[in-house]
Amino acid sequence: MSTNSHFKNAIVRMPCRRMVKGLSSAGLGLPYYNLALQQHQKYIEALAKCGVEVTSIAADENYPDSVFIEDAALLTPVCAIITNPGAPSRKGEIVAVERSLSQFYLEIERISAPGSLDAGDIMMVGNHYYIGISQRTNHHGANQMIAILKKHGMTGSIIPLKKVLHLKSGVSYLENNTMVISGEFLYKKEFSRFITIQVNPSESYAANCIWVNGTIIIAEGYPKFKEAVAAHGFSTIELDMSEFRKLDGGLSCLSLRF
Ligand code: CIR
Q1: I need a labelling partner for 100 at 20 to 30 A (CA). Which of 91, 134, 228, 229 fits?
Q2: Domain 9-257: CATH class, spelled out
Q3: How far is CA 171 from CA 174, 196, 217, 236, in A?
């Protein structure tokens, strides 16, 4: 297993045709499956360029949102934690994800009812994990997660969310003590110790980006954000995310990195 300073692997899940039935509050219309497939392919290529080996799980038409694999598990350097996704239509996504993870992890833990948790609500900062309480993640789920992390020598703490779907819809950690922060998180005392890159409100979707072995993968079409990230000395790869954005999904949601 890798340490946080380097990811060796990523797991993605192929988009299914029924992604058009995915959960959405974006009001941007239905995604085009063929275009989503092309964008997904470019995402895989970007991960590979950053030096990770990409494992791909087959599409499953029973789960329209299953391409957003991040929500099904939290991966730490010592164990994998299978979640209990908050949306009823997404609960079954975990079966195939656990099967795939069993090739990589000996220690697999679980969140169980009445706890619910989407791992898009979890931001890893070294050994510490910030856990958003959201429409999908409840206190039971977060407390179970904190207990599991503790058992394995790590820590967790809770951040209540007001507006965004998931914690990482609004914040991203870029290692190097640097955090991308937007909207409701801008002046949170929990994040005051970090060097921050603030996202202009007109570009709030850009707040979800991923650090992959020193490169920051960002969504295409957010020039102010791109410039701010470059000004902090990071190299970037830009990807068109239009079809996943229509389903409230971002860059982090499309993979598990470990
Ligand atoms: C959902 O509402 O669950 C999906 N349409 C989008 C999930 C995005 N995942 C994430 O932010 N981690």
Answers
A1: 134
A2: alpha beta
A3: 10, 10, 14, 17
User: What whole-number distance in Å separates Cα of residue 197 and Cα of residue 190?
Assistant: 15
State whether the beta carbon of 87 lies less than 6 angstroms from ligand 1.
yes
The C-alpha R_g of the chain, in whole angstroms, comes to: 17
Other Cβ atoms within 10 Å of 101 Cβ, number: 23
Residues of the chain with pLDDT under 70: 1-5
How far is Cα of residue 155 from the mean position of the Cα atoms in its chain? 19
Cis peptide bond upstream of 114, omega within 30: yes
Question: Mind listing the pLDDT tens digit for each residue in 207-227?
Answer: 999 999 999 999 999 999 999
253 is catalytic: yes
Q: Identify whether 166 is a catalytic site residue.
A: yes
pTM beyond 0.70: the answer is: yes
